Amino acid sequence: MSMINYASREINCKIVYYGTGLGGKTTNLEWVHSRVDPESRGKMISLATETDRTLFFDFLPVDLGSIRGFKTRFHLYTVPGQVYYNASRKLILKGVDGIIFVADSQAQRAEANIEAMHNLFENLESYGYDLETIPFAIQYNKRDLDNILSVEDLREQLNPAGVPDFEGVAIEGKGVFETLRAVSKLVVKTLN
Amino acid sequence: MTDSGRVPEQRGVPEASLRTSVRDTVQREGARVGFLFDDSGMVSAAGGNPGDLEPTSFVSLSFAQFAAARDLAPEATGGELSRLAQVGGRCRFVLSSIFGGRTLALLFDDAPEALHDTRKGGSSGPGSYPDVMDVDRAAQALSEAGSRRVEGLGVNWSRDAEGEIDRIFKGED
Ligand SMILES: Nc1nc2c(ncn2[C@@H]2O[C@H](COP(=O)(O)OP(=O)(O)OP(=O)(O)O)[C@@H](O)[C@H]2O)c(=O)[nH]1
Ligand SMILES: [Mg+2]
Questions:
Q1: Which of residues 83-112 of A touch B (CB under 8 A)?
Q2: In angstroms, what is the C-alpha Rg of chain B?
Q3: Which residues of B touch A64 (CB under 8 A)?
Q4: Which of A16, B14, B32, B35 could disulfide-link to B142, CB 3.0 to 4.6 Å?
């Protein structure tokens, strides 16, 4: 999965934001883009509809610089959450090194979250990937809104395996870097 | 690997010849730049001079474009898509399927008049497709040799990487 190119001494890791439509995946990436030192990041690409729904993906490359002689780079992708864009979601998952599942904490989105989680497992399975071995974290987003489920309830619904999970308010940047750091560190650990 | 803090040096011949084949193809076909990327959108070899082109953006968009067109193709043509070309006023851009789910993206700086002059340009003058056989063969050889990573980078490497992650992904939470 992670590409280590020994000859050119480059390492490329792919982290994918997954989750239900309007859950806040693009918002997470926009926050990262706005706060990471411009020296360290490339251009953010968003293939989106006029109403800002992700159509194909958002993409942001981030350079970690040279680590022990290896130029190390993270490729951050979001998938489109809308149910009918599954072909794109599946394609983006190819070769994934780490996954951040962005859940929408609002009670009325509970079913949509569960459906998105099932969809993630299905798509990974179709590639023969195993979520138990892929670095994985969950962000319960939109904690600023009313009518949200408790973290305990969300955990019960979405995180039976007890992977690292975080509360988020992505529009204010809360939990954004915390979640990204957690998954990124798990990813680099898989390379040693 | 053991935790000596050193990282392995070389991956061997097939990888090198894949890179060479990409560089040679870029040169022979007269392209400005070429990128070979795999089916996850990651670049495995490059050639030419990107100039002010941002390689990662270029590759991720090529990846999206080819993937979308390929998914569309069976419905539109009943066949498989192996080439995709886009011609603009000042440049031309050709995507070719390569063995093992890879794609070679070649970008040409063709002057507008060259588009109508079939005598110009090498084997890939406008109107014909670049010859990517060498890259295809090299990719096949690499797959046969087994391209899986054999050694890790060591705990010192990942510890340093974690430090960089803390530094770059700081930001208030
Ligand atoms: N109140 C609140 N709104 C948020 C939060 N995060 C995102 N939003 C809003 O939710 C809407 C959808 O956010 P996006 O980031 O576009 O959602 P997405 O997951 O990328 O959606 P798709 O691209 O359709 O899959 C936008 O209007 C965001 O401003 C949050 O933490 N709190
Ligand atoms: Mg989006």
A1: 87, 91, 94-96
A2: 19
A3: 161, 164-165, 168
A4: B14
Average pLDDT value over all residues in chain B: 78
Average pLDDT over residues B8-35: 84
Interface of B with A in 98-137 (CB under 8 A): none
Each residue's pLDDT tens digit, A122-154: 999 999 998 889 999 999 999 999 999 999 999
Residue A49 phi, psi dihedral angles, 5° rounding: -80, 175
Range B13-170 classified under CATH 3.30.450.30: yes
Identify which of A18, A27, A105, A169 to mutate to test ligand 1's pocket (most ligand atoms within 8 A of the CB). Answer: A27
- Between β-strands B33-37 and B102-108, what pairing exists: parallel, antiparallel or unpaired? antiparallel
For helices B13-29 and B133-145, angle between their N-to-C axes, nearest 10 degrees? 170
Q: Could you tell me which chain A residue has the CA closest to the CA of B65?
A: A56
- For chain A, the straight-line distance linking the first and the last C-alpha, in angstroms and rounded, comes to 14
Query: In sequence order, what DSSP letters do the residues of A93-124 get, joined into one string?
Result: HTT--EEEEEEE-BGGGHHHHHHHHHHHHHHH
Does A42 lie at the interface with B, CB-CB under 8 angstroms? yes
Q: Which two tokens stand for residue A135?
A: 């670095």
Q: Whole-model pTM?
A: 0.85
Burial classification of residue B13, based on how many CB atoms lie within 10 Å of its CB (0-12 exposed, 13-18 middle, 19 or more buried):
exposed
Contacts 24+ apart (CB under 8 A), A113-116: A113/A19, A113/A20, A113/A23, A113/A154, A113/A157, A113/A158, A114/A157, A114/A158, A115/A20, A115/A83, A116/A18, A116/A19, A116/A20, A116/A23, A116/A81
Q: Which two tokens mark A8?
A: 């050119």
- The whole-angstrom separation of Cα A56 and Cα A79 is 7
* Among candidate residues A84, A148, A154, the one with its CA nearest the CA of residue A119: A84
Distance of alpha carbon B121 from alpha carbon B129, whole angstroms: 11
Q: What is the ipTM of this complex?
A: 0.93
Nearest to A42 among B54, B157, B158 (CB): B54
Token pair belonging to A151: 């973290």
The CA A169 to ligand 1 mean position distance, Å, reads 10
Coil/strand/helix, residue B135 = helix
